[in-house]
Amino acid sequence: MGARAKTLMLVEERAREIFKRYSVNEIRIPLLERIELYARATGETSDVVEKQMYSFSDRDEAETTLALRPEGTPGVVRAYIEAGLDRSDPEQRFFYSGPMFRRERPQKGRYRQFYQFGVEVFGRADPASDVELMVMIDDLRRDLGLKLTTEINSLGCADCRPAFRAALLAYGRAHLAELCEDCHARLERNPLRLLDCKIDVRLAEAAPKSSDYLCEACRKHFEQVRRLLDSSNVPYAFNPRLVRGLDYYTRTAFEVVSTDVGAQGSVAAGGRYDALVETLGGAAVPGTGFAIGLDRITLAVEATREETPLAATAAVVPIGDTATERALWIARELRTGGLRTELLSAERKLKTNLQRADKIGARFAIIVGENELQRGVAQLRDLKKSEQREIPLDRLVTEVNGSGR
């Protein structure tokens, strides 16, 4: 297994551990769905539907058109509705992980098969639900030692978006001769795509802002989102041009960007989609969610790896056979405390084990021999700082967690 694959697996592992602490349960969604699901959910004018989906006709009598999943949210919503949860138990929290497929021109950070880790929360319309998603991503950012920027905007709701849409349409018509071919084709059907265009960037900068058209309810919702982000110590920037490339978003939209991965800097994105469940045939249940691009966040980890450890990873090093029993217990306690831990072999020399600890990227080596066990302590060696000190066994988890951040 290559170094990048190992890093990607580690990022996914850390995401699973962190998000499960938020009482989010795993859901498995199929790789194949009817193409209508994405057309209805993602939007017929989106790049995903118009250009990027891999689709084919099935050999059944109806010649059903299927698509390889280009994103996770529509499949999660479909499963949620088919299970009847939208009516029997609407408040649910799910996470998914796996490959997605889009017809792309391969380049660094943009692949035809790529990997996403996503979270979807149903049944919550309050701003705290939006903010908690961004806090989750910020927890992962801190755990991985990354430098990321969160950008936020509000897209309004069904009450106030029509006025914003009309203003954008008028603006686009006034600059019709300057628009690219795609914007020409999509302007009348969905003028919001103008703001998401990678060609007409200059025109988008001067276009009307959604924040100027928010109704009172949306304005208060967005103000509360910003207050809660501030109180949660999540750094963010307001970006009035942020609309996302998918049609289902309402109110809060956000994007998390890295400056360490080149042109494809977006490593995570999401927002609120209060009408999506109903659009796909379910009850009127609000929803919000995000997806992390595991390939891109892996690139960001690799770019900063020399400066920052991947996590407060520990290696337990027993000295002598009699220490192995206690070392097994220590390793289990560390794992129970949320730490990625590897138990090394007592049959190896200390020097060999410390080399192994460094190779696996461990921040700490926890050394236990007969002398330490008699005194109820362990030697905690910080491999990054080349420092070593004695720690009581009952304080190991706390010390390693605290020192590794």
Quick recap:
This protein is an alpha+beta fold. The chain has helices spanning 3-20, 35-42, 47-52, 73-82, 85-88, 127-144, 161-174, 181-186, 201-205, 216-231, 276-279, 294-304, 324-336, 350-359, 370-375, 396-403, and strands at residues 25-26, 32-34, 55-57, 65-68, 92-101, 113-122, 148-154, 236-238, 250-258, 266-272, 287-293, 314-318, 341-343, 364-368, 377-382, 387-392.
Q: Would you write up a description of this structure?
A:
The chain is an alpha+beta fold. The chain folds into two domains: 3-160 and 214-304, 2-Layer Sandwich (BirA Bifunctional Protein, domain 2); 314-403, Anticodon-binding domain (Rossmann fold, 3-Layer(aba) Sandwich). It contains 16 helices and 16 strands. Strand 3 (55-57) and strand 4 (65-68) form a beta hairpin. Helix 1 packs across helix 6. The longest helix is centred in the N-terminal third of the chain and has 18 residues, at 3-20. Mean pLDDT is 86; it is low at 307-312.
List keywords for this structure.
single chain; 405 residues; alpha+beta; Rossmann fold; eight-stranded mixed β-sheet; five-stranded mixed β-sheet
Give the helix tally. Answer: 16
Structural class: alpha+beta
**CATH architectural arrangement of the largest domain:** 2-Layer Sandwich
Helix content: 25-40%
Determine and state the CATH class of the largest domain.
Alpha Beta
Number of strands: 16
The proportion of residues in beta strands is 15-25%
Low-confidence blocks of residues: 307-312
* CA-based shape: elongated
- Oligomer designation: single chain
